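Folding Problem: From Residues to Backbone Shape
Fields: amino acid sequence; protein backbone structure tokens
RECORD BEGINS BELOW THIS LINE
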Amino acid sequence: MIKLGALWKNKNGKDMFTGNIEIDGKSTRLVVFTNGYKTEDKHPDYIIYLKEPKTGEAPSAAPSGDNPFVDESKIPF
């Protein structure tokens, strides 16, 4: 196995993880949420997002379109 990065559970007890992965020498910040819209076993347990870059950082690819599997009210930003 190849280690890509690490994630940390939110200290406030919310169902989310944050962290970084590195692919081809480029670090990418991620946020992982539990799927608030999971109603069937075939639905994913977690949804992964790329974090918005901080001011002065190079932009990363942003998710496009709405995702029916994510409860946007749980996103802290």
Q: What stands out?
A: The first strand starts at residue 5 and ends at 9. Residues 60-65 have pLDDT under 50 and may be disordered.
